[in-house]
């Protein structure tokens, strides 16, 4: 297995955490692989572990979960084992980042003869009048074809779009900047909901061998990096990297930005700000379109049309999301019984609550509670729910 070169192509106004999260994830994977390499050889020269699905033909011993859990030093390995990372900018040298911590970068043109496995463009602050660095756009356009995959974190998607790499593809960015991305680059199919998107091209095979990944802001860059690590090195290594970072390998039911977007819609002003606040306080009531229209002092037909125009989703979807968000919070922050949570959040019954969680999150409510219960809450729940299969009448 050859060492993969991960290049972070950064703009002068780099959002530091957009790069630091993925860098740390790759570093933790590197430590995991170094530990497994040393363990497989008793501390001497070891045969390189590999992902059995992609490197079994090379004769290397696959990395097992037991290997991945071997403690590793936090000191860097003598040489790269799995990943070599480079942070580079057009001019190189010290870069003043947002919100201010400087970083040292290499010159991007010094990498023109270097192999690039993965090209990652972290985010920058954007607004309606932001100007992207044309030299960086040109470098990305010129060098992306020789990378196996191209990625962006948060508003780094604006650079990929400007370089023409997102034309005809699904892409995401921070929910707050998604409308701007869609307006500025109408050939990009912007989806503000997912944490990250892997787009393999119109035929599912990518553009040549290149797959394009885009992700939402800051912590979503860690989710993206863990997905890349899993693709490269297998689940065991990615899981160990996640454990070292003290994050979930995959957020249960959390592969969505919707909760943050909904909270912003409820507090960012506009004609339905007061209605959203009222809905949150009356979740257990009958929140039909007719009732909401009455509270908004509109006819049901006018209300439904204006609501979709202003919010971008139907009133029913907002009600469902608010109830799920409230139930999720109650499960994570309290030991209240499911029946009480179901009633307080407007689901009516435990069965409806379970169905909603399985349909939206893919997990049962008590499983969600066990994974997310606050450290300040009472001791963990000591009972589990039976699994639910599609089509089951959940009781």
What does this structure look like?
With 395 residues, the protein is of the alpha/beta class. The protein has 2 domains: 4-245, Rossmann fold (3-Layer(aba) Sandwich), CATH 3.40.50.880; 258-372, Arc Repressor Mutant, subunit A. It is built from 16 helices and 10 strands. The strands form 2 sheets. It has an 8-stranded mixed beta sheet, sandwiched between helices. α11 crosses α12 (300-311). It is globular, with a radius of gyration of 24 Å. Mean pLDDT is 82; it is low at 43-72 and 374-395.
- Percent of residues in helices comes to 40-55%
Strand content bin: 5-15%
Report the CATH C-level class of the largest domain. Answer: Alpha Beta
The total of beta strands comes to: 10
Number of helices: 16
* Helical/strand content category: alpha/beta
Can you tell me the CATH architecture of the largest domain?
3-Layer(aba) Sandwich
Mean pLDDT equals: 82
Annotated CATH topology of the largest domain: Rossmann fold
Please mark out the parts with pLDDT under 50 across 5 or more consecutive residues, or reply none. Answer: 43-72, 374-395
How many structural domains?
Answer: 2
Largest sheet: 8 strands, mixed
List the helices and strands and how they pair.
Elements: E1 4-9, H1 16-40, H2 52-55, H3 65-68, E2 83-89, E3 93-96, E4 102-107, E5 118-121, H4 134-143, E6 149-153, H5 156-162, E7 170-171, H6 178-184, E8 189-190, E9 196-199, E10 211-215, H7 219-233, H8 235-245, H9 258-267, H10 273-281, H11 289-296, H12 300-311, H13 315-333, H14 338-344, H15 350-361, H16 365-372
Parallel strand pairs: 1-2, 1-5, 2-4, 5-6, 6-10, 7-8
Antiparallel strand pairs: 3-4, 9-10
Helix pairs in contact: 1-7, 1-8, 7-8, 11-12, 13-16
């Amino acid at each position: 297995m050859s060492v993969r070169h991960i290049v972070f192509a950064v703009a002068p106004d780099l959002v530091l955490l957009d790069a630091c999260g993925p860098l740390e994830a790759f570093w933790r994977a590197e430590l995991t692989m170094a530990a497994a390499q040393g363990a497989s050889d008793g501390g001497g020269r070891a045969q390189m572990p590999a992902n059995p699905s992609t490197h079994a033909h090379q004769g290397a011993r696959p990395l097992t979960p037991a290997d991945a859990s071997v403690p590793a030093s936090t000191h860097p390995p003598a040489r790269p084992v799995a990943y070599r990372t480079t942070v580079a900018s057009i001019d190189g040298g010290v870069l003043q980042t947002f919100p201010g911590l400087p970083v040292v970068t290499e010159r991007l043109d010094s990498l023109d003869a270097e192999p690039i496995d993965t090209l990652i463009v972290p985010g920058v602050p954007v607004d309606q009048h932001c100007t992207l660095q044309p030299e960086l756009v040109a470098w990305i356009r010129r060098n992306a074809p020789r990378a196996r995959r191209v990625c962006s974190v948060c508003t780094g998607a604006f650079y990929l779009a400007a370089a023409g790499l997102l034309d005809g593809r699904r892409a995401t960015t921070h929910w707050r900047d998604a409308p701007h991305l869609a307006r500025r680059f109408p050939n990009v199919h912007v989806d503000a909901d997912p944490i990250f998107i892997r787009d393999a091209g119109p035929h599912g095979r990518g553009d040549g061998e290149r797959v394009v990944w885009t992700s939402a802001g800051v912590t979503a860059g860690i989710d993206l990096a863990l997905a890349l690590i899993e693709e490269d090195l297998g689940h065991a290594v990615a899981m160990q990297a996640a454990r070292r970072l003290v994050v979930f390998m995959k957020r249960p039911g959390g592969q969505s930005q919707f909760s943050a977007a909904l909270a912003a819609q409820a507090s960012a002003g506009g004609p339905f700000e007061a209605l959203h606040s009222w809905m949150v306080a009356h979740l257990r009531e009958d929140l039909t379109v007719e009732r909401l229209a009455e509270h908004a002092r509109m006819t049901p037909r006018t209300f439904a049309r204006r609501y979709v125009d202003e919010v971008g989703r139907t009133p029913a979807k907002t009600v469902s999301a608010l109830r799920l968000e409230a139930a999720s919070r109650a499960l994570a922050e309290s030991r209240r019984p499911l029946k009480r949570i179901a009633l307080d959040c407007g689901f009516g019954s435990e069965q409806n609550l379970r169905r909603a969680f399985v349909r939206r999150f893919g997990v049962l409510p008590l499983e969600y509670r066990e994974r997310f219960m606050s450290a300040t809450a009472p001791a963990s729940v000591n009972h589990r729910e039976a699994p639910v299969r599609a089509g089951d009448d959940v009781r």
